[in-house]
Design brief:
CATH class of the largest domain: Alpha Beta
Distance between the termini: 16 Å
Bound molecules: uridine-diphosphate-N-acetylglucosamine
Number of helices: 15
Strand order of the largest sheet: 21-22-1-23
Strand content: 25-35%
Number of strands: 23
Number of domains: 2
Shape: globular
Amino acid sequence: MTKYIVQGGKPLFGEVEISGAKNAAVAIIPAALMVDGVCRVENLPQISDVTMSLKILENLGAQIRTINRHTVEIDSTHIHSTRTDYELARKIRASYYLIGALLGRFGHGEVAMPGGCNFGGVRPIDLHVKGFTALGAKVTVEGGFIRAATDRPRLKGANVYLDVVSVGATMNIMMAAAMAEGNTVIENAAREPHIVDLANFLNSMGANIRGAGTDTIKIRGVERLTGGTYAIIPDQIEAGTYMTAVAATGGQILIKNIIPKHMDCITAKLVEMGVEVEENEDTLLVRRNGPLQRTNVKTLPYPGFPTDMQPQITTVLSLAEGTSLVTEGVWSSRYRYVDELRRMGAKIQVDDKTAVVEGVDHLTGAPIQASDLRAGAALVIAALAAHGESEVSHVQYIERGYENIVEKLRAVGAEIRSVEEPERAALDAG
Ligand code: UD1
């Protein structure tokens, strides 16, 4: 059990280098299963979701060669199984991408029902299933596994309309269709930067995908994907998290290795709140000296304000002058962290999808517990801004998606350290 101990109340100054995008990496690694040859993936973030995804591929017969901390070579020439390890796959949400990848290349795949972050609501995959079915697969659930298979030699291209804009369904259907016979059109597709990244990855391996980044994606199926080299884009949400951290604490941070365009939706809100943001080619200089102003935020699919930044921006707004409204427009519920912020003195009322955030002068350090990845990041931000000491527990959620968060924060002057705690069971036994 690891905990973070944070002495808050210090402004942050310095530079942070942003890692590769988690949500692109957890799709591109399964997509590498479709490649008949060696693909080299660069700028992979060193986080536990990536380690786990690589392990799943290895169990299926892929050869993984680590080149350096952020680069691997994946050789999926000799895949010997299309049934994933149950325990490994159920640990990460993104294991659902293995279904699209296996189905696309081999015409069948079995993957444990996905796990991962639980925001407190249901995370359905009915749209993924709708897409696979349209492409000619039969999808069933047996013994905790989702089984998808076609009795044809290959899937068959089709038109798929997504009733709800879904990142996961868009990427999964794109993978399955990349090697289907004929053309597929995905309408009302999600437009997140990691969707474009997955399409670019597949295209660089020989796929024929157009329109990624718009709401209509057209895929002409190819018979084979072959090897190549691909570098993953920088992580929009990691960058946004450090931007909100300096907004909450005050100070000045240079955020390096980003694509500023991907940050527009976050930058715009922070500027409304009185944060200064200076954009350069691949950096953002983020500065906050004066008081934070209230604003309203509604999360929406890209290019709207990302739901994965909702806990972090709510934390900053809890320190702004006046009352702000935050509306969750993607998930049915994503406010479990609010109880923890209240322990620190935040004044937030949640009514269904809306949080009414009444700004307070300061937060006070407390023992707090992460309930999911981004909620955990928000609690770290709260702890950095709070007066006094906080103990953040259940940080394994945070480490699923943030590379070296403790080191990166320490480099900008944060007083944060990671401590190992004996398991409670061991304590009780003692
Ligand atoms: C991905 C991200 C997650 C982010 C989310 C929205 C990964 C690994 N995770 O999750 O961090 O919060 O995008 O940006 O990339 N829905 C359905 N049926 C489906 C699928 C989704 O109704 O089959 C609904 C969901 O309940 C939700 C909405 O669609 O209300 C968006 O979900 P989706 O974009 O699919 O999220 P994920 O891909 O799971």
